[in-house]
TrEMBL record:
Name recorded for this polypeptide: BZIP domain-containing protein
PROSITE patterns: BZIP, BZIP_BASIC
One Gene Ontology term of the molecular function aspect: DNA-binding transcription factor activity
TM region positions: none
Database matches in SUPFAM superfamilies: Leucine zipper domain
Length: 122
């Protein structure tokens, strides 16, 4: 592996330098090497640092997440309901138009039958 250092700026009030590891591609990379790379990257990025939260803070954060998820769910349900209602209104209008078309065609058929019968009797 080839190691290269890159300046990444300030994190938590401290200057950070990230190590960028690139495979040299001189053969296969084992799973162990990949795991070491991931663990090293996690440690260097600070993501692996366990933040100590009080139980109250954890509970507050979980409730906040749950409230946000519930709000997203309600919004999706409301949007789906609005879409379904719009489709229903459109289908009801289409159904009414088709009923009027059927009535007009039945009347036209009745008129044509009467005209044909009237023409044969004359």
């Amino acid at each position: 592996l080839i190691e290269k250092r890159k300046r990444s700026g300030v994190k938590n009030g401290k200057q950070c330098t990230l190590k960028i590891l690139r495979p040299s591609f001189q053969g296969t990379v084992s799973i162990e090497e990949i795991v070491r790379l991931v663990v090293s990257a996690m440690k260097n990025s600070g993501l692996a640092e366990a933040v100590q939260e009080s139980p109250e803070e954890v509970l507050r954060r979980k409730r906040q997440q749950n409230n946000e998820a519930a709000a997203r769910y309600r919004k999706r349900q409301r949007e789906a309901r609005n879409i379904a209602e719009g489709e229903l209104e459109q289908l009801l209008r289409r159904n009414e138009d088709l009923r009027h078309t059927v009535e007009r065609m039945q009347q036209e058929i009745a008129d044509l039958k009467q005209a044909v019968l009237a023409g044969h009797t004359s």
